[in-house]
Amino acid sequence: MLCCYADPEALVDPESFYPIRPECKEDAPPTRFKPMPGKTLSSRRWHASFSPDGHLDISTVLQRIQRGGVHPKIKGAVWEFLLSCYDPNTTLDQRNELRKSRRLEYEKLKSKCKEMEPSVGSGVVITMPLITEDGRPVEIFRSNNGPESVPETQQPEVVTGDAEGSATESDDPEGVNGEGPSRREKVEPVIESEPVDAAVVQWKLTLHQIGLDVVRTDRSLVYYEDPLNRARLWDLLAIYSWIDRDIGYCQGMSDLCSPISILIENEADAFWCFERLMRRLRGNFKSTATSIGVRSQLMTLSNIIKTVDPKLHEHIENLDGGEYLFAFRMLMVLFRREFSFVDTLYLWELMWSMEYNPNLFTVFESSSGFSADINGQDAGPSDGSTLKKCGRFEKRYLQAGQGGGAHHPPLSIFLVASVLEFKNKRLMQDAKGLDDVVKILNDITGNLDAKKACKEALKIHKKYLNKVKTS
Fold first, then answer.
1. Three-class SS string for 413-452?
2. What DSSP element (H or E) covers 42?
């Protein structure tokens, strides 16, 4: 009988699944996650968790993930359940039918978007405006060999080659221009014979911003050296921004969508997985003329620190940091900048397994509209059967009688709180202004262990609930 350590999956370097470009390795944060035999959810354990007809023992799966994450080979399939794309209490045939109908729905959405803008599904990335704010088309240049980057800043650009940058950096847009054949032919703009729908105009106005972010997203990964992979990410975000009219596209969404696009091979499946993730997070992107949605989470973070560590909160307030804006990025893109790519995947699946509630699938399926979020919706009764299938974080809330789903702060806020507690001593002693706070928090990049951070977040969560209960 082979020892468990002979399992080939346990010996695999997870970074080999998401290789980094050689010239970027020096600047990439170090990866801490390694598959652990007996702890990490392996493909063998995953497949053994299904009954003959396809029902999934989600309790066992959650326990395994919370112990050691998910093996890279099966992350995509597991994430579909963690994000409530599918109900574990269904058969394989039922899920296949649902998958088939969703793929058809996605093709309809993609076809509709392609009718409005032919670049969708064409394998290119638009990085300069297609239309003016009043809906008039901008002239497009194409080479004799197809779409080409155009150096004039007033012209729309189609990127098909290499591009550098980061989705949250303010790089010069001209820096993404590639070289093309010297001969160009001008494509005359299509003159609309009828007034353009305002929603279509608004959607088209965002497409180049999506492109600018896409060519900067996860640029260190070999995966995105392929222009078709960048184009796929652009398609996913462009189509999502069409169906979610209230939010559209906002900077940071490319950072959230990229891992899903990489992990899930089928484009339609990746789209619906991203759509489910946005159900959880879209409230952060809701904005008005004076505020953005994530401020509500920042206010919650402020209240949590005030409750569990009043001295630290007072110190931050004295530095004029009471709004906790220094935590903005961590909450918006779920720690993408604080962890390596591999460790980000590990952190996310730990969080989702701890927040898991089996009733969210029904909540999502029954809600109106493609992208209705979970704010204000109850994730169902906290009976014994539900509790058994919930993650540790969600279970604690249900046992406290505080409701499931969006009726409580997400684990990500407590993760930020754990980071602040981790840096408590330096913040109290060395932070003389907000610039110092930002500098101290920037030092955590590559220096955090995802599992330890989640454990500390759970401790702070427990402390917070106890203090709130007795206050």
1. HHHHHHHHHHCHHHHHHHCCCHHHHHHHHHCCCCCCCHHH
2. none
pLDDT in tens, 300-345: 999 999 999 999 999 999 999 999 999 999 999 999 999 999 999 9
281: pLDDT strictly greater than 60: yes
Whether 305 and 428 have beta carbons less than 8 Å apart is answered as no
CA angle centred on 460, ends 358 and 409, rounded to 5°: 45
Which percentage of the chain shows pLDDT scores above 70?
A: 81
Residue 379 is predicted with a pLDDT of 57
Q: Locate tokens 């754990």: which residue?
A: 418
Angle among Cα 208, 348, 308 to the nearest 5 degrees reads 110
Q: Is the confidence at residue 224, as pLDDT, over 50?
A: yes
The residue type of 336 is R
pLDDT bin (cut points 50, 70, 90) of residue 89 is: very high
| 267-279 average pLDDT score | 98
Signed CA dihedral, 445, 446, 450, 451: sign only: negative
Beta-carbon contacts of 167 under 8 Å, excluding residues fewer than 6 positions away, are 213, 214, 216, 217, 251, 252, 254, 255
User: Torsion over CA of 315, 318, 319 and 323, rounded to 10 degrees?
Assistant: 90
**Rounded mean pLDDT of 34-46?**
94
CA nearest 284: which of 275, 294, 297?
A: 294
Domains of the chain: 14-92 (no CATH), 125-280 (1.10.8.270), 294-470 (1.10.472.80)
Host H or E run for residue 163: none
Q: Hunting for tokens 């053994």 — which residue is that?
A: 48
Say how far apart CA 64 and CA 75 lie, in whole Å: 13
